[in-house]
């Protein structure tokens, strides 16, 4: 190993005090940055990618809540009236098999008061890009404010409609479906579009069989699925503790062959030890899809498992490992970030006159005294 003094200009006795101070400030800043990078990476990777605190993914905590938006009234020609705000909601974007999707609209003024809204025409139509040959399917939808058929509360100014693709002209249609809504608020005409992506024949289905077991210091959940189309499947699920507090996001990303398959969702041991959730844990809101490359949409959905689908057994904290997750990639990055810290520290030491080389070279007697 070469002596750092031979490589680093800061050790030169020719440095005047001002230059030495400038370089010291520079390397102290680099040292702090290197330490922060190392500490941040180490903390961020102490759990594996497939087992993370739910706080890191707040937008995925409740995936089945309606998707709500608010925007100014837009006409079909693109004109905007900022005095009228349109609030919209749809229950989901990706729809599979026999799932239902609801759509809602409500108009308000700038002060939040509900304005009378009429839906003049609403048409759902298949968009180009699906595998369906021939004319693209389309059908009208009826919006109402009667507290039924997807409408939560009657006479509240929120008009709603339901679409069940599997029980309509879209029953054999795979791909994007657009709902175009022409509406009127007073004397002003508006236009809004809802888009969904429909999977008519899900590539796999859940059998309903779920078990949990402790393996290698982690808690693994096995969900059985009947796979009809092989390929790469992505699955995600949420865990709540015994008090109903959202705790972890679990994920699966791997290839699956045809047939009955046990999909493993792993809750990492150290995450349990660090967060100390109250047992038993509730597995809920499971969504999954087959990834499809170079096509739109890029996924074929499985029907969602909505709400609580399984409750774990009770476990003592001691059965779980407190060891950090490790991998070849993580160890390589930790080593490189550690080198950055060591290099910056050595430059700071040189400039402060503490050392001219590494600890190894110092032990071997290959270092000289620092210049002051």
Kindly describe this structure.
With 372 residues, the protein is of the alpha+beta class. Helices cover 17% and strands 40% of the residues. The chain has four helices and 19 strands.
Short description:
The protein is of the alpha+beta class and 372 residues long.
CA radius of gyration = 30 Å
Summed over residues and divided by their number, the pLDDT gives a mean of: 91
- CATH class designation of the largest domain: Mainly Beta
Structural shape: globular
Largest sheet: 6 strands, antiparallel
Quote the distance from N terminus to C terminus. 24 Å
Note the quaternary state here: single chain
Helix content: 10-25%
Strand content: 35-45%
Strand-pairing-aware structural class: alpha+beta
CATH topology of the largest domain: Immunoglobulin-like
Runs with pLDDT <50, length 5+? 1-11
Named CATH architecture of the largest domain = Sandwich
Quantity of strands, as a count: 19
Number of alpha- plus pi-helical segments? 4
Q: Element order, helices and strands? A: HEEEEEEEEEEEEEEEEHEEEHH
Domain count? 3
């Amino acid at each position: 190993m070469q002596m750092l003094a031979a490589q680093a200009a800061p050790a030169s006795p020719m440095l005047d005090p001002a230059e030495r101070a400038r370089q010291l400030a520079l390397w102290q800043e680099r040292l702090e940055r290197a330490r922060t990078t190392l500490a941040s990476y180490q903390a961020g990777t102490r759990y594996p990618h497939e087992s993370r605190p739910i706080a890191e993914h707040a937008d995925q905590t409740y995936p089945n809540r309606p998707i709500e938006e608010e925007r100014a009234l837009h006409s079909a020609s693109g004109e905007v009236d900022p005095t009228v705000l349109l609030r919209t909601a749809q229950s989901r974007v990706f729809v599979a098999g026999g799932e239902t999707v609801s759509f809602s609209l409500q108009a308000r003024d700038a002060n939040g008061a509900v304005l009378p809204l009429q839906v003049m025409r609403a048409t759902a139509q298949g968009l180009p890009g699906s595998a369906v040959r021939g004319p693209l399917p389309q059908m009208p939808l009826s919006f109402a404010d009667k507290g039924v058929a997807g409408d939560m509360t009657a006479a509240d100014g929120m008009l709603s409609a339901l679409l069940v693709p599997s029980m309509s002209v879209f029953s054999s249609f795979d791909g994007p479906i657009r709902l175009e809504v022409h509406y009127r608020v007073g004397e002003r005409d508006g236009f809004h579009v809802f888009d969904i992506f429909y999977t008519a024949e899900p590539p796999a289905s859940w059998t309903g069989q779920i078990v949990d077991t402790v393996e290698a210091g982690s808690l693994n959940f096995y969900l059985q699925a009947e796979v009809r189309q092989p390929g790469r499947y992505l699955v995600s699920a949420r865990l709540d503790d015994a008090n109903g507090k959202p705790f972890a996001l679990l994920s699966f990303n791997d290839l699956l062959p045809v047939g009955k398959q046990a999909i493993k969702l792993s809750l990492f041991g150290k995450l349990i030890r660090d967060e100390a959730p109250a047992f038993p844990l509730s597995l809920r809101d499971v969504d999954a899809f087959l990834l499809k490359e170079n096509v739109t949409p890029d996924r074929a959905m499985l029907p969602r498992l909505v709400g609580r689908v399984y409750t774990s057994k009770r476990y003592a904290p001691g059965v779980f490992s407190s060891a950090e997750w490790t991998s070849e990639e993580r160890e390589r990055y930790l080593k490189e970030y550690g080198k950055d810290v060591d290099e910056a520290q050595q430059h700071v030491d040189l400039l402060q006159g503490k050392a001219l080389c590494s600890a190894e070279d110092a032990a071997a007697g290959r270092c000289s005294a620092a210049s002051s």
